[in-house]
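Loading example: each entry is read as two labelled lines plus one structure line.
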Amino acid sequence: MVKEIQYKSLFPKLERPAKDLFNQLQASFLKSEYVDQVKYRVKSIHSFSKKSKTMNKDGTFKYNSPVSEIQDQIGIRIVVKYRSNITPATTKILKLFAIVEDRFAEPEDPTSFGYEGKKIICLIPRAMVEKYSLPIDFFEIQICTLFQYAWAEANHDLGYKPAAALTREKKRKMAWAAAQAWGADQIFDEISKKTS
Amino acid sequence: MSSLSISHIQHCAAYVVKPGKHLTGKSLSACVNGSIANLSPDLLTFLKPFYLKTSLFPIEISFIPENNIQTNKVRDMIHLIIQDQANFQTNSEQLAVRLSQSMDKRSNTVLLIILVGTSPSGNRLVLLTFPHGAVLSFKKDSASTNVIINVLSDAFSQESAFFKAATYDGDISSRRSFWKGYVEDKQAKQQLKGVSNYWIDDFLLSMPTLKSSYGTSLLSKALTSAISSSKNIGDKQIIVAAATTLLSQKNKSLTFPQIANDYLPASARPMFLKKIPSAYHSDPFVIDTSQLLRTINLKSVEIDNAFTISGPVNSFDQRVKREKLQNGKTQFTLTGKVSSTKLSTSRRKRLE
């Protein structure tokens, strides 16, 4: 509860640094034709509250100090056209920000399909931390393809509604849609490479 | 706990560290001698500012993630020192051994001091190294594992001392939020080489947080601003020439004040530095020359190492016509109204 109150007061203060980071990235990718769009968001109070209560397997809280430890309070999404565009976009980000993590998120089981995309945890530039007196050091950049983005949006909309818990069949349908998105990415990437 | 005092120091260890790169086992162990240190009043007075003044550590660094996930050996060592203070000596010795492994024979033997304690924002850990004889003299005590340290009072000055230092402050025990530190390297600055690699890269497994592309974008904006705000055509030309020279500084690590002092006329320095957030005035970065070329909006051609034609990139090719001659030379034609002419007898004089 205390953490939620802390975040409620922090939440409006994150909008300007989030916008600054968004502007910086948008300017950096302005001439990159492979980027479809750049978006940003500040983590909602509800989502922060939910995440701050995440437990470890041993029953302890995952976050001892959620305000400083939850690293995606500011999130930027870069949507690229094709799968092979993720690498140059990542390279550009690595030259721009100091990073603490850079991994491709995908289902561990090779026969499963679900969210896929690049997650990069970056340090908020020093001048911005000082300018806005931020109590946080990190922000998250996700890079995904148009198909990955479309699937993630629909999954977020349909799959995270507590009132309508998904049945096994619906979950299988979501996984099937993820598999279609994966397949479409493969095909478009292949054609793009052959025609460019 | 509102203000920090020397009483917040809880542990101190001192080690004489010799270069031990590529050594292992007993040979490596022999390079590190020391233990928990008792602080004499002289030494405590000497060390006090390093523990209290964060301004002594101007360069921000972050740990380099291993395998691109949130792990780092040095970060783990620091965690251990903070979380297991009962075994401070054993845990701090690991850092001393790591320092030895990072030093090759080009480095001299140093005194490593590790201070650990609390601060208003959590914990604080300070790492300091000093070469022998500059401000401190030190030797291994033949009768114990201790190091005998003497403050050389006539050389006492933190500002002039040759030292390397790092400080970590805040919630250092958190594996999720602890990623940053601050460093200083007086010794390297005296040699005008920027921060020496073994301290940040090899020993601390870290990197300056000001990345090349971010730094270059600040540089580009500051140079553009300096050019447009300069009222003197001669100064404008020097700044343009400076930008052109900077385009050739590939892989060179520089700070903004270094760029201002070494490349810009005195009159342009204040405007240039005003455009750089003060947080970055000490942070070194490598200029991304291709990005600078794209963003500075200047194009320049130098002929016979003596004559330069520079201008806005957008109209450069329309205004400056070039024609290849049969003798392998190129003829340039520039058409326009003369805004001013200037006779400069000494470029050096103007730079001063």
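Confidence is low (pLDDT under 50) at residues 190-195, 346-352 of chain B.
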